[in-house]
Specification:
With 466 residues, the protein is of the alpha/beta class. The chain has 17 helices and 16 strands. It has 2 domains: 196 residues, 2-enoyl-CoA Hydratase, Chain A, domain 1, CATH 3.90.226.10; 237 residues, 2-enoyl-CoA Hydratase, Chain A, domain 1.
């Protein structure tokens, strides 16, 4: 099943052979590589851009660029999303710089469409390369690729000519792009129509946590002592952010990144479309996965998408902290945490954060700068882990248990300090329903800017008077 083309646009446009290139016969208008128009994906209407490799190798010349620019402008006028089905060999060499400048023209038009608050999605078919991939085809909100498709800036033959070596079989493919977080899904041809519908806000499947994960909330009682609350929050049998995302969300369209410790998706919660960012402390199998810079870049991408298309944001926090090692350091982990804080601060839609386990230091605070900050009553949030705090303050870890109390890390303590907006019970029957109701209430009542008012009020209370 594919899209239904309601009306094709600009079908009469034809190239004038601007370079008078030897041996080049400009194709007939019907044989051009790109066609555009108004299309239906089930009950979802969108502007369709189809780039066809079986027409002129899918190359982009003046006609393709003009059709695309006009289509994007019409999409803005009609307030419609754009769906791109792409198979391209890149720029059309026989049109020289006239072809090359279409990269800039289409990029400008794509930016204008995005700035109007409208979504765009693309499906990369084989091949998707060159100037098309390096311009409008990469400037979309969600990206899928066909299994085994050649996807890359330089096609394999160009890579071999430039570098002297053919790229390995593990490079320049849909699968390698997925591993690198450059596409959100690898989708067989027969499933692409459903994926596009879901990306446009239609029916989508639920989020399924990896096998072997907890299938229910933690049934144990919350201890009284902070040290044991933290130990319980860290336990490997306890659900993390991905499990809670699966329980709270009715559907899920993945925004894929290269760091498995952070997941993001376009979801529905109680019928409302929400952008969700979930930490996954179980991603590494040891219950202590720490987000790397790529995880924070994914979070920024998700929050900025929500801001642009007008969706609220829900973040689910559970991490011992950001990865501090040399590789993460050289990849800019501090800058990416700061960038995530800025993305949350700049978001023009309501934001809600729920700490479901451990909120570890600045790596957790990056997703906690929300208009509503909630905590499960068995969660903990701390300036730093008590073990590290003991090492800093006392040069050994022997004071960690006492520091767990001294640092006031429990949900009850942080509520008293005015640093969280609500504490949600996580034990007893109906826990998921209770948490869902709290999240929905927070999404409905959060006011943009509450994040700054809460932190300013708590800071004022912490200041000594004159």
């Amino acid at each position: 099943m594919g899209p239904r083309l309601i009306h094709e646009w600009d079908a009469e446009l034809r190239s004038a052979d601007p370079l008078r290139f030897p041996g080049y016969g400009p194709p007939a208008a019907a044989d051009e590589s790109v066609r555009t128009g108004l299309a239906a994906f089930g009950d979802r209407r969108a502007v369709l851009v189809e780039c066809r490799f079986d027409h002129q190798g899918g190359t982009m010349g003046a006609v393709a660029g003009e059709r695309l620019v006009r289509a994007l402008r019409r999409a803005v006028e009609l307030r419609l999303p754009v769906v791109e089905l792409v198979a391209s060999g890149g720029a059309r060499l026989q049109e020289g710089m006239v072809s090359l400048v279409q990269m800039a023209r289409t990029a400008s038009a794509a930016r204008a469409h995005a700035a109007s608050g409208l979504m765009s999605v693309a499906v990369y078919r084989s091949p998707t390369t060159g100037g098309v991939y390096a311009s409008w085809a990469s400037l979309v909100d969600l990206r899928a690729a066909e299994p085994g498709a050649v996807v890359g800036f330089g096609g394999p033959r160009v890579v071999a000519e430039v570098t002297g070596h053919w790229p390995p079989a593990t490079s320049h493919t849909a699968e390698s792009a997925y591993r690198a977080g450059l596409v959100d899904a690898v989708v067989p041809a027969e499933e692409q129509f459903a994926w596009v519908r879901g990306a446009l806000g239609g029916p989508a499947p639920p989020l399924l946590p990896p096998p072997g994960r907890p299938v229910t909330p933690d049934p144990s009682n919350v201890p009284a002592e902070p040290w044991w609350i933290l130990a319980r929050a860290r336990h490997r049998s306890r659900p993390s952010g991905v499990e809670w995302a699966a329980w709270l969300c009715d559907s899920w369209v993945e925004l894929h990144g290269a760091d498995p410790a952070v997941r993001a998706g376009l979801a529905r919660v109680g019928g409302e479309r929400v952008v969700v960012v979930a930490m996954d402390r179980h991603a590494g199998g040891d219950g202590a996965a720490r987000p790397r810079p790529a995880g924070y870049r994914l979070a920024q991408r998700a929050v900025r998408l929500a801001d642009r298309i007008g969706c609220p944001v829900l973040t689910l926090i559970d991490t011992p902290g950001a990865e501090p090692g040399p590789t993460a350091e050289s990849d800019g982990v501090a800058q990416e945490i700061a960038g995530t804080l800025v993305a949350m601060a700049a978001c023009r839609t309501p934001t809600v954060a729920l700490c479901v386990g451990e909120g570890g230091s600045g790596g957790a605070m990056a997703l906690g700068h929300a208009d509503r900050l909630l905590m499960l009553d068995g969660a903990a949030f701390s300036v730093i882990g008590p073990e590290a705090a003991s090492a800093i303050l006392y040069r050994d870890s022997s004071h960690a248990r006492q520091l767990a109390a001294d640092l006031r890390i429990t949900a009850a303590d942080l509520s008293t300090l005015g640093l969280v907006d609500g504490v949600v019970p996580e034990s007893g029957p109906g826990t998921v329903a209770t948490v869902r109701a709290a999240v929905l209430d927070a999404l409905a009542t959060a006011r943009i800017g509450d994040r700054d008012r809460r932190t300013a009020t708590a800071t004022a209370r912490a200041l000594a008077g004159p």
